[in-house]
Design goal:
Layout (H helix, E strand, L loop, with lengths): L3 H4 L5 E2 L3 H21 L8 H15 L6 H22 L12 E7 L11 E10 L6 E5 L29 E9 L12 H7 L5 E4 L9 E4 L6 H16 L3 H12 L7 H9 L10 H20 L2 H6 L2 H19 L4 H18 L2 E2 L2 H15 L7 H15 L9 H28 L1 E3 L2 H22 L5 H21 L5 E3 L5 H15 L4 H5 L1 H10 L11 E4 L8 E4 L4 E4 L4 E3 L2 E2 H13 L5 E4 L4 H4 L2 H7 L4 E4 L6 H5 L2 E3 L5 E4 L2 E7 L18 E7 L4 E6 L5 H10 L8 E3 L11 H7 L3 E4 L12 H9 L3 E4 H4 L2 E4 L2 E7 H4 L27
Length: about 850
C-alpha cells in the first residue's frame, strides 16, 4: 500500500477552502460505500434496474450540492458495480458445456505456473467449437504419472509429458471445462471470488490422451509477449542457478511474482512470524520501488539545467517513479495487489502534478476510491484492508512535519511506526485470519529492511547478473534461520475464534485509539473496546446436546462434532498433492475460526480422501488422540499415538454418548479386505427433550458391512442424521439399511462434478422414495446440524450467498476420465 507523503516528492499548494474539503471527503466515502453495499447482494438485479438507478443518480447530481453529492455518488457506484458484474456474468460457461470435450483456439496469456501435476496457465480464447466458452480460462496440462490417490485419470494423460509453454503462444487445444467452484466454509477462503477478480469464468484441463485430438501450436509468441517471456526466462534461469528450493521459491516470488514457487513449510513459517506480506510482490514492494525510482530520476534530472528548465525536477521524479513502478509491477506478473498500488500512485501523482496538497484523509480516501473504481471486489480482500488501514494509521499517528535526523532518530522513527502498525492491525489480522503473530514486531523490524533492502534487490539484480541469485539465496537462508528461532518462542502465535463483525470493528477502533496521538483519557478507552473481541468464544451446545459441522472439502469426508466442552473430528478430507491437503487448506482454519481444540480425531480408514488431511490437523492439534482402522505400520500411526477402532468401544462427553459399531476385531485378521470394509462407524447419541437424538457416521462402508451391521441389530442403527455411506456410491445405501436407519436428514460429502459420479442418481432415488431430506455439499457448502433442531440443516452457501458464487448444481455427471474437482481415494 501507498504511504503518499513519503512515496513521492513534496510540493504543491494546500487546499484553500476547508469548507470545500468536507464535501469532497464525503463524496469519496460515498463512492466507496456504494460499491461496498452492492457487494452484499445475494443475486444481481436485471441490468435495466441498475441502468435506471444510474440515470436517476446522474439527474439528481445535477440538482443537488454539498454533502448530498455523497449519496448521489454512492448510488452511482452501486449501479456501476452492478452493471459491470452483470456484463461479466453474461460470459459465464453454459452448464451444458461442463464436462464436454471442447476445441478451443487462443493464446497463453501469461507466464505458466509450475505445478506438481503439470503447468497451469491462463488461456485467452479466440474461438471455440462449440461456441459459448468464456473468453478467459484457467487450464492445467497434466503430465507425468498419476498423482496421489489417482488424482489424474489415465484418459487425461498425454504421453506422460507436457510441452514447455510460453506466454503469447497460440494453441489449438481439446479441453474439458467446469464452472468456477470452490469450497464454502464459515470464514473460509472464497475461491470463486478469487477467480472472478481475475476475469476467469471456467477452469479445466487439456485433453491430450491417445484418443484425443492432438494439441497444436499454431504460432509463436505475439508482439506483446516479450515482457512475459522475459519473466519466464528469468524464472527458468533462477531455477538453474539456485539449488535450494526454499530460497529459490522466495527469490522467484520477489523477482517475477511466482508465489506458487514458495514451499508450504516456508509459508507456514512466514505466517507464524508475521512476515508473509514481504514474501511476494505487494504494495509495499511497489511503493518502495516507486520511492527509490523517484529519488534516482529526480537526482539525475537535477544534473541537467536544460531538463530542469524544460520541466521541474519534482514533476519528473513523480512521473518517472510511477512509470518505473508500473513497469516493475508488470514484470512481477501484474498481480492485483501490485495493480492496486500502481493506481494509488497514479492518483496521488495526479494531485502532485496538479499542484494540490490535500489533507491526508482526502488523499487517503482518493487512493481508496481509485482502487474501488478499478476493482470494487478488492473491498473483500484481506490484503487491501491490511495495507489500506496501515497507511491510514501511519498518517493519523504521524508526529508532525519534522523528520528525525541522524541514524538513531531514524531507527526510533522506524520502531515507533512498526509498533503503531502492529498494534493497530492486530484486531484486523485476528478477525481476518484467526491468529496474530506475537513475535511479528521483532520479526518485521529485522525482515522489512532485510527483504526490501537486500533480498529483493538481489532477486531483481540476478536477472542482469545471475551470480547475484546465489548471494540472494544466502540472504534468504539467513533470514529463514532467524525466523525459525523466533517461531520456537513459546506462544509465538496467538489464535482466537472469529468474533462477530461488531466486536471486530470495536476491537479495531480500540486499537486505533491506543496508537493515535490523543489525550490519555481517550486512549485508555481503547482497552474496553478491545476486550470483548479478545475473550469472545462461539456459543456451544448445552449439556446433553451436540452439533455437527460437515465441512465442504470436496471429494472426501470431514465432520466436526462439538459438545458442551469437547470436540471430535471424524475424517480429515482428501490429499491434493505432496504439499497440499484439506487439513491445511480447510480444516485447520475452520477449527481455528470455531475456537475448537480437538480432543479426538477419528479416521475411518486409510483412503486418501478420508486420511489425507490428518497429518496437518494433528500437527496443529497434537493434544488430540487418534482412533482409526489404519494398520500399525502406516505413516500416520508412526507420527502420532494411535488406537484401533473396534466395535464395542464407547465413551461419554458432556452427557453425549459415543459408540463405535464397526469394525469387529475379527475383520482386522482377514486377508485382502478392502480399506472401505474397515471403516470406523461412529454413533453419537444425545438425550433430547422427548427422545434420544442420534447421528450415524459410517465412512465408506459398502453392502457387506451394511448387512453385518443389520445382523448385529437394526435397532442400534436408528438415527436422525446419516452421513451417507461412501459419498452416495451405488455400492452402499441399500434399501434394508435405509429402512433400519430411517434418518430425517442425510448428508452427502462429495466433490463438485467428481469423477466417480457421487452421489449416484439411483441411490438418491432411494432416499427420495423414503422422504429423506438429502443435503449435498457442492450445493450446500459446509452443513451445520444440531441435535437440538434435528430436522434443520444450515447451509453455508445459502447463509452467506453472494452473486459471484456458484450454486453448486450441475447437470449430468462427468464423462469417463474426467478427474473432477479434487483428487479422491475411492
Amino acid at each position: 500500500m501507498l504511504d503518499t507523503e513519503r512515496a513521492m516528492p513534496d510540493g504543491g499548494r494546500a487546499m484553500p477552502d476547508a469548507g470545500r474539503a468536507m464535501p469532497l471527503g464525503w463524496m469519496l466515502a460515498g463512492w466507496v460505500a456504494g460499491a461496498a453495499l452492492q457487494l452484499q447482494q445475494a443475486a444481481l438485479w436485471p441490468a435495466v434496474s441498475y441502468a435506471g438507478l444510474m440515470l436517476t443518480a446522474v439527474a439528481a447530481g445535477l440538482a443537488v450540492r454539498g454533502r448530498s453529492l455523497a449519496l448521489v455518488l454512492a448510488v452511482s457506484a452501486f449501479a456501476l458495480t452492478g452493471l459491470r458484474a452483470g456484463a461479466f456474468m453474461q460470459q459465464a460457461l453454459p452448464p451444458a458445456l461442463e464436462g464436454r470435450d471442447i476445441l478451443v483456439r487462443g493464446v497463453v496469456a501469461a507466464m505458466p505456473q509450475r505445478g506438481e501435476f503439470g503447468p497451469r496457465f491462463v488461456f485467452e480464447v479466440a474461438s471455440s467449437q462449440p461456441a459459448g466458452v468464456p473468453p478467459r480460462l484457467l487450464l492445467t496440462w497434466f503430465a507425468g504419472p498419476p498423482g496421489p490417490a489417482g488424482a489424474v485419470g489415465a484418459a487425461v494423460m498425454s504421453a506422460r509429458t507436457s510441452p514447455v509453454l510460453h506466454a503469447g503462444e497460440h494453441w489449438q487445444l481439446m479441453v474439458r471445462l467446469r464452472a468456477p467452484h470452490g469450497p464454502r466454509n464459515p470464514h473460509g477462503h472464497d475461491h470463486e471470488l478469487w477467480l472472478w477478480e481475475r476475469g476467469i469464468q471456467a477452469t479445466g484441463y487439456v485433453r491430450a490422451g491417445p484418443r484425443d485430438l492432438a494439441p497444436q501450436r499454431l504460432a509463436q509468441a505475439d508482439a506483446w509477449a516479450p515482457l512475459e517471456r522475459a519473466r519466464q526466462s528469468v524464472r527458468d534461469a533462477l531455477s538453474s542457478q539456485v539449488a535450494d528450493p526454499g530460497a529459490e521459491g522466495v527469490l522467484a516470488g520477489l523477482a517475477v511474482g511466482d508465489q506458487q514457487a514458495i514451499e508450504r513449510a516456508d509459508w507456514d513459517l512466514f505466517r507464524t512470524t508475521g512476515v508473509a506480506h514481504l514474501m511476494s510482490i505487494s504494495g509495499l514492494h511497489v511503493t518502495m520501488f516507486a520511492w527509490l525510482a523517484a529519488a534516482l530520476v529526480g537526482a539525475a534530472w537535477r544534473r541537467s539545467a536544460r531538463l530542469c528548465l524544460a520541466w521541474p525536477a519534482p514533476h519528473a521524479a513523480v512521473v518517472g517513479g510511477v512509470l518505473l513502478a508500473a513497469l516493475y509491477a508488470a514484470f512481477s506478473g501484474g498481480g492485483l495487489p501490485a495493480q492496486r498500488t500502481v493506481w494509488m500512485l497514479v492518483a496521488v501523482a495526479g494531485l502532485r502534478l496538479a499542484g494540490l496538497r490535500w489533507p491526508w484523509p482526502h488523499t487517503w480516501a482518493l487512493a481508496g476510491a481509485a482502487v474501488v473504481t478499478l476493482d470494487p471486489w478488492a473491498l473483500l480482500q484481506p490484503g487491501f484492508w491490511l495495507s489500506f488501514v496501515a497507511v491510514g494509521v501511519l498518517f493519523a499517528s504521524d508526529p508532525g512535519s519534522t523528520r528525525p535526523s541522524g541514524l538513531a532518530g531514524r531507527l526510533r522513527s522506524l520502531l515507533r511506526e512498526q509498533v503503531v502498525v502492529t498494534v493497530a492491525l492486530a484486531p484486523l489480522t485476528l478477525w481476518l485470519f484467526g491468529q496474530v503473530s506475537l513475535v511479528g514486531l521483532v520479526a518485521n523490524l529485522a525482515a522489512i529492511p532485510w527483504v526490501t533492502g537486500v533480498v529483493t534487490p538481489l532477486a531483481l539484480g540476478g536477472a542482469v547478473w545471475p551470480p547475484l541469485w546465489q548471494a540472494g539465496a544466502w540472504a534468504v537462508q539467513a533470514l529463514t534461520q532467524a525466523l525459525q528461532l523466533l517461531a520456537l518462542v513459546p506462544g509465538a502465535v496467538w489464535s482466537a475464534a472469529a468474533a462477530p463483525l461488531w466486536m471486530s470493528l470495536a476491537g479495531l477502533a480500540g486499537a486505533l485509539l491506543l496508537v493515535l496521538r490523543l489525550p490519555q483519557a481517550l486512549r485508555a478507552m481503547g482497552l474496553p473496546l478491545l476486550w470483548p473481541m479478545l475473550v469472545w468464544q462461539p456459543p456451544r451446545p448445552v449439556h446433553g446436546q451436540f452439533e455437527l459441522v460437515a465441512a465442504d472439502i470436496g471429494q472426501g469426508n470431514a465432520v466436526i462434532v462439538r459438545t458442551a466442552s469437547h470436540s471430535l473430528l471424524y475424517d480429515t478430507g482428501p490429499r491434493h498433492g505432496s504439499d497440499s491437503d484439506a487439513g491445511d487448506r480447510v480444516l485447520v482454519p475452520l477449527l481455528r475460526a470455531l475456537g475448537e481444540r480437538l480432543d479426538r480425531v477419528v479416521v475411518s480408514h486409510r483412503d486418501s480422501d478420508h486420511i489425507g488431511g490428518a497429518a496437518s490437523v494433528l500437527a496443529q492439534h497434537a493434544q488430540a488422540d487418534l482412533l482409526s482402522s489404519i494398520d500399525h505400520g502406516h505413516a500416520l500411526a508412526a507420527m502420532h499415538t494411535h488406537t484401533r477402532c473396534l466395535a464395542g468401544q464407547g465413551w461419554t462427553w458432556d452427557g453425549v454418548r459415543f459408540d463405535i459399531l464397526h469394525p469387529p476385531a475379527a475383520d482386522y485378521a482377514l486377508r485382502g479386505l478392502a480399506p472401505n470394509a474397515l471403516s470406523c462407524v461412529l454413533r453419537i447419541t444425545a438425550a433430547g427433550a422427548t427422545a434420544a437424538v442420534t447421528a450415524l457416521l459410517v465412512g465408506d462402508i459398502e453392502l457387506p458391512q451394511e448387512r453385518a451391521l443389520l445382523r448385529e441389530g437394526a435397532g442400534a442403527l436408528r438415527a436422525d442424521v446419516l452421513l451417507v455411506p461412501h459419498h452416495g456410491s451405488k455400492s452402499s445405501s441399500s434399501d434394508a439399511f435405509l429402512d433400519a436407519v430411517q434418518p430425517r436428514v442425510a448428508l452427502v460429502q462429495a466433490g463438485y462434478r467428481n469423477r466417480y459420479g457421487h452421489p449416484a442418481p439411483a441411490v438418491m432415488a432411494r432416499y427420495a422414495r423414503r422422504g429423506i431430506a438429502v443435503t449435498v455439499s457442492p450445493a450446500c457448502g459446509a452443513a451445520r446440524w444440531s441435535s437440538a433442531e434435528p430436522q434443520r440443516v444450515r447451509c453455508e452457501r445459502e447463509a452467506s450467498r453472494r452473486y459471484w458464487q456458484h450454486p453448486g448444481l450441475s447437470g449430468p455427471g462427468p464423462a469417463p476420465g474426467d478427474p473432477g474437482v479434487l483428487p479422491g481415494g475411492d
